[in-house]
Every structure is written in structure tokens, then in C-alpha cells.
Amino acid sequence: EVQLVESGGGLVQPGGSLRLSCAASGFTLSSYSMSWVRQAPGKGLEWVSNISSSSDTIYYADSVKGRFTISRDNAKNSLFLQMNSLRDEDTAVYYCARVWQQLSFDPWGQGTLVTVSS
Amino acid sequence: EIVLTQSPGTLSLSPGERVTLSCRASQSVRSSYLAWYQQKPGQAPRLLIYGTSSRATGVPDRFSGSGSGTDFTLTISRLEPEDFAVYYCQQSETFGQGTKVEIK
Prior knowledge:
heterodimer, B: 7-stranded mixed β-sheet, 4-stranded antiparallel β-sheet
């Protein structure tokens, strides 16, 4: 079964840091680009970042550029998101997703909640 | 940057009805890159349609997608109880704001 499982979320103070992980199983991670997408409470979906299969191409949303860093370890079937200088507005459920056919996202992990609050 | 506008914001319908959801892009987009997702409360989004009209694996054939240029549509031919959810369109890094389909 193709599956993604996120971890690493939690409560952090403004200005703090957090590192999210996404464990992939059931497919060869090294064959796919991967993304992080977030959803603030009661809001819609917001794309955060994308990394190519070999990590040579990386993109970020303007809202996180310079603060977040996406990375991957294909040998360990894992995707990461290092989040620094966190702000209240970064509070959201963070999903990892495989970039699938024609730039769609499938599957998605179950999400991990990041709460930025003092 | 492309903006995707979904309409209506909320639809109140009964099981068995036909549903048409709209997604309009601020500029012409490549049809091959338009996708639709379903999200139920407390769950991750689920891919329904990619490439404007291709159903993802396991998606019932009551779901269909169409469109081109700036106007795209997701149609549910006959609403089932499990179809009440929020639906999002997506093109590359951009998502629409969502349409909620609720029980009337």
C-alpha cells in the first residue's frame, strides 16, 4: 500500500523552530518529486514547497521562502521540512504529498499539526 | 501568478442530485495540469481527477471532470451520502478556495 506518514508537529513559540518528517512506504521515493501542503484551521489548502526526485530543483511559496527548508533522504524513504523563525500564521496542519500524474498530488499523508503560539 | 476561483462557496443539496462545481482560472492554464480533490472533516485531501478529466484510481465513475482554457468543471452525476465534503481544484502550486457540498 502506498502510504505517507508525517511526524514532528507540535506547539512552538513564535520565532522557534520545528522539523517535520514524512515517511514513505509502498513506492520508490527516489522516483518522485514530493511536496508539502498546509491547511490553517478552518481554511483552504496552501502549497508550501516542492523538491525534485534528486533534490536538484526546489521551490518555495513566497510566504515561507528564507524560513523553511525542504530536503529528502531517498535511502531512508524520508522527506523533511525544517521550519525556522515560525510565525503565528504558520499554524496549520502540514501534509506531505507525492507529486503524481500531471502535477497532481497523490497520495497525501494524514497530516501533522503545527501550532505557533506563546 | 494564477488565481483559481471556485464557485459557489457552498452548495446545499440532497442525495441523488446532480452537482456541478466550477473552477475558473485568472489566465489560461494547461488543461493537463488541472486536478480536483475531495476533503472530508478531519481527513487529508483525496485526489479525484487529474489532467482535467482522468479519474484517479478507485474513484467512482459518477465523478467526472471537464473544461479547458480558464473554465473547468467537476460533475457528480448522482450525489451519494459519502460525497458531502469540500472540493478543491488545483493547478500546479495553486489551489482554489474550495466548494463545500452540504446536505440540504
